[in-house]
Design a protein that fits this description.
The structure is a homodimer of 354-residue chains. Chain A is α/β, with parallel strands linked by helices and 354 residues long. Helices cover 40% and strands 17% of the residues of chain A. In chain A, the strands form four sheets. A seven-stranded mixed sheet of chain A has the order 2-10-9-8-5-3-4, sandwiched between helices.
């Protein structure tokens, strides 16, 4: 079966072999305070940094999930006010996390399938924006995100790139924090989140501490940094996942991140073209600027169940529509683990479907 | 190599095969909202419940580590005051987590290698006690722990069993919360914590919420419970580890938890006997009541480095002494993954060492 569900998604080609190697090398039993683990940690950091062109102003930390990162961002970076651009279920969850942590959280909302293009000036210490909404297939223009930073130089700009990395090429000088989890674009089993945060985030967390505020326990930014400088993690981590992530990043570097990004574009183009021409299916996101290359949502209405079964008979698993869209949409991930041939096959099957 | 380090420790015999099966069954790519994942979640819950005789007054939740559970316990259960029995590095970390979360935390401390036997009456909403201190090899008598509950019926009694489960047989009616991580007694790779919490803990968390206090975001007890009742987790979890844990618990049930516990006792007895008779080595914990069966610490003084190398030449990895004891002690885990034959070999080598 080819798994087009947007996460947990299809495994990257090399993940199973790297997991076997991890066992062979004794990674599961390795002390997380040993030089052997430190070498793994360092390798993963270096490979990720190279693959995504992350500058040294930005640190890379490991959490258990992107969901955890929403909580850590608010805990570490906000005294009073945050602002959230909400255009789907995941951007909304970040907003709700801020409310649960008793912050004055501002919600700027558009309806599902829509995006944002006007970088507002906001009264907030942190601005949360979702580069790629996995629930609605909306991708926001990078110019909008950078514009937010220009408009709000003193706010920390935090970008959810859960389902867009490693495809998106960010200018990190315009972003204070970016985060993702490994079961999407990196094609790994779930259980690891990656939190990229710059020196301004560290300084903010330290200023909260200096004010006598609590910023959590083991997953505070200063404690992450203290351990990270030794190539260690605050707690005993998911060491196998850290090892595999480094190896996958290395594999992607070898294949060429440019090649991966070009192929992603090609695959997106052929699927969106197919939907444009199709007599009974269409793209849910109609505005071209907002059409995500990595999570493509098909508006299939009454045909949804039949289409899903039809594809399954062909060996293709589509992701269900999210939330209220379950039953009227199908979601297709376009990650590095999905080959051009698989996308060509998919579009051929869609052509033949009526 | 035989790995006697107390964690991450030697893998349980069947872990690698179960990990392979997880990949074969598609667990890494499985949606965590699918019936297939719910079946895995339910299986793991049932096997753990059966293995450890956990009554239905107590719920089982998954975190990323035991370190995370310290934070969650304080967030969910304490308005103002907690009390912590501190006799080593890990019990101290829980106490410090409470302070970092701005609670009035009381520390009741004895020196490393010592334990507690007098169940005090305390002015606290939560009492933290470490059944087995992995850093010092001290195990507290169950009678002391149950006595604490008798003395403090209104406090929530939270027991760190990180390095004692599945060996210890608790009377859960005397304990409100117990927790462990899987890389110790369960012989798995790190990356999963197991948090057992009873209805009183849920009620306390809900009462904090009702008072308008924040109890965190995705890992609050009410949200865990809401998802758990559907056999789901709050976030995309480490699904492979949840699958493997259920299979390992099943394997241990098949072997017989009574057999495992008897063997643990046998292995502990032969090692402590060896240390009693040895001319240059001794047990760090001198009081028999406090001698942990599962983490046995050898006071090796100036001989430490030589002993460590000697064992390594024989194919045996010992755990280093923790913190200030590094260089003068070695730690030996006695987990279900360590066979009687391996312990007999170890004691033979110690006899021959001088």
């Amino acid at each position: 079966m080819i798994n087009f569900s947007p996460g947990p998604s299809q495994l990257y080609f090399t993940v199973e072999d790297h997991t076997k190697s991890a066992f062979r090398l004794g990674v599961p039993s390795m002390s997380h305070r040993s030089p052997a683990f430190e070498a793994i940690y360092q390798h993963t950091q270096e490979q990720l940094r190279a693959l995504l062109s992350i500058p040294h102003t930005h640190h890379i930390f490991f959490t258990s999930s992107a969901t955890e990162i929403w909580e850590r961002l608010i805990q570490n970076l906000v005294v009073e006010k945050s602002a959230h651009f909400v255009n789907g279920a995941f951007s909304e969850k970040f907003y709700k996390a801020a409310k649960q942590l008793h912050k004055k959280a501002l919600e700027i909302r558009v309806q599902d399938g829509d995006g944002f293009s006007n970088p507002l000036k906001l009264d907030a210490e942190l601005i949360g924006v979702t580069h790629n909404e996995t629930s609605t297939g909306v991708s926001l223009p990078k110019s909008f995100i950078y514009g937010l930073k220009d408009q709000n130089p003193d706010a920390l700009l935090c970008v959810d790139a859960v389902s867009s990395l490693p495809n998106v090429d960010f200018d990190y000088s315009k972003i204070d924090s970016v985060y993702f989890s490994v079961q999407k674009g990196f094609g790994m089993p779930p259980g690891l989140g990656v939190w990229i945060a710059n020196d301004a985030c560290i300084a903010r967390a330290e200023s909260l501490l200096a004010k006598g505020l609590s910023i959590g326990t083991h997953h505070s930014l200063p404690f992450y940094l203290k351990n990270g400088l030794k190539n260690q993690t605050p707690e005993t981590p998911n060491s196998v996942a850290i090892y595999v992530l480094g190896k996958v990043a290395e594999d992607m570097m070898r294949r060429g991140i440019g090649t991966i990004r070009n192929e992603t574009e090609y695959k997106a183009v052929i699927l969106y073209n197919e939907l444009k021409q199709h007599k009974s299916l269409s793209a849910f996101v109609t505005e071209k600027t907002y059409q995500s290359p990595t999570v493509i949502i098909v508006e299939s209405g009454d045909l949804t169940e039949r289409l899903s079964k039809y594809l399954q008979e062909k060996g293709i698993v589509a992701g269900e529509g999210y939330g209220v869209h379950q039953g009227s949409q199908l979601r297709f991930a376009n990650f590095p683990a999905h080959s051009k041939e698989q996308f060509e096959l998919l579009t051929d099957y869609l052509t033949a479907f009526s």
